[in-house]
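Go through this chain.

——
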Amino acid sequence: MDKRNKDILDIALPSIVSNITVPLLGLVDMAIVGHMGDASYIGAIAVGSMVFNVIYWIFGFLRMATSGMTSQAFGRGDKSESADLLSRALTVGIGIGLVFVAAQVPVGWLAMKAMQPTADVYYLAQRYFSICIWGAPAVLGLYSMTGWFIGMQNTRVPMVVSIMQNVVNIMASVVFVYVLGMKVEGVALGTLTAQYAGLAMAMAMLRRRYRSMLHAYTIKALADGKAMMRFFTVSRDIFLRTLFLVAVNLFFTSAGASQGAVILAVNTMLFQLFTLYSFVMDGFAYAGEAIGGRYYGAGDAAGLKDTVSRLFKWQLVMTIAYTLIYAAGSGTFVSLLTDEAAVTAAASDYLPWAVAIPFAGMGAFYWDGLYIGLTATRGMLAATFSGATAFFTVYLTLFPVWGNHALWLSLVMYLVTRGVVQTLMWKKTCGKLCG
């Protein structure tokens, strides 16, 4: 294997492992409360986890903006700017987290109003929220650090931190619940402990691996108004883009729920196939962020073009593999998740949509990483807005006729539109380096 393909895999593979470990934090919590003998505990964790998933997803710009700008600084060999970016990102991330801690009462009230859990679940979900909200500075601070590590071409640190967080979460939750006799509070404290353990470990690895750069971590980086404005401009576009992503995903779930429990179950299970696909594709997107941004920052047109070409080939191979696997085994996948006859029977009608998802989504994943690396966030926003417009237009037009098939077609069109728009905008976005 040549060096450039190795560089891609060195970024992508640890990122894929990190992506796979992320949902394990929630699964551990769910497994523990699932044995408490009361369905209310499961509902509380489900509601609480959903609230934090939405909150943290919206602030994903902390990772992406930091990754793109840091990779460019790395490509230029500008160690001082790389350190300044860490200062800005970490301060903003922890600062936003502290705002959530300070505003936890109104935020918690709004979250519960939005989720509308039943009375028995409401109290338990509030307890879970009131403990886990204290982890916001750690989570958002770690988002910033993860983006910085990716920009520095290092995805092994985030991988190690993710694995360690899961180990700490399991151990702490077991102690709090089974040794100290706590219930939902014990699960929440286990999650909180893992979050701060992750931040602490990332800090320790930062100090060990990048000690020579830490002298540049000063208040001067925060006082640079022009640089801070650029950080917030890039972050703003990604923030708005994320709102469209959240709107589409939440509406997809809501529209499925409105059609009854069976269709909701079918949509939820088949959507997991998209999630599994995204774990791998996001890994290669991270490679696009890191390596594409590095070559862009260095002004290396040949290196950037080669990276674009190689990433396309890697993602095409993975997409073909996923499509073949889903075509052969999606029915078996559904059967493994449920033995409800009504659900498996209904799912068979929608399996072709799940098979179509990899090719529909390939362009969106492929270009997102490269656009982040170039900090071409306005193009990402335009593509996602176009995709969301296509989603809701198709749904509103065809749902009265096609029902749930229209919902799945809307999702496919949303993904395809994002990829097509970014493809058409690429040469203009890349500028002279791609001319």
Remarks:
- The CA atoms of residues 1 and 148 lie 27 Å apart.
- The chain has a mean pLDDT of 87.
